[in-house]
């Protein structure tokens, strides 16, 4: 993991508190800079990590049918406003040549890519591209649906609005029946 400079973050948080007219030395805010620095270290823990590492171990299994892990909870921080967005990821692939990944690895890849200042679109395409590269499947389909706090608590202020992104690779891009199978299973 990339080293986070906690003292620098703490100083920056103190400066922000002062800039908005708060007193960083008041009781309720006294430890806020330390808490924020620790939180940033945690929520940005994906910096310096490569999601490809989760696909270093592949199992040999002659299964060339759909594998779908749906409703994977995730959260990330919008790189434009540094406020959270969160939701669910759905990851599907059709293995080829006996290359099957552990199911938890799909969730770990989503988690690692999301744990950095991010865009939802980038998480979606990065996970799909990594899986195509490392697993060489017939196809990959990644769908993320998330609520963005930058739309909920500021700007347009539309709580509950969901953003849906998809990345479709391989057979899912060319075969509407394969794509429809994933979409119908997501509705269940």
UniProtKB/TrEMBL annotation:
One Pfam family here: GTP_cyclohydroI
Species lineage: Bacteria, Bacillati, Bacillota, Bacilli, Bacillales
EC number: 3.5.4.16
Cellular component per GO, a single term: cytoplasm
Complex formation: Homopolymer.
Residues annotated to bind Zn(2+): 78, 81, 150
Family named by the database record: Belongs to the GTP cyclohydrolase I family.
CDD domains recorded: GTP_cyclohydro1
BP GO annotations: one-carbon metabolic process; tetrahydrobiopterin biosynthetic process; tetrahydrofolate biosynthetic process
InterPro entries (alphabetical): GTP-CH-I_C/QueF, GTP-CH-I_N, GTP_CycHdrlase_I, GTP_CycHdrlase_I_CS, GTP_CycHdrlase_I_dom
Keywords: GTP-binding, Hydrolase, Metal-binding, Nucleotide-binding, One-carbon metabolism, Zinc
The protein, known as: GTP cyclohydrolase 1
Pathway: Cofactor biosynthesis; 7,8-dihydroneopterin triphosphate biosynthesis; 7,8-dihydroneopterin triphosphate from GTP: step 1/1
Substrates-to-products reaction catalysed: GTP + H2O = 7,8-dihydroneopterin 3'-triphosphate + formate + H(+)
Enzyme class, spelled out: hydrolase
Annotated ranges, domain GTP cyclohydrolase I: 9-186
Gene: folE
GO molecular function, one term: zinc ion binding
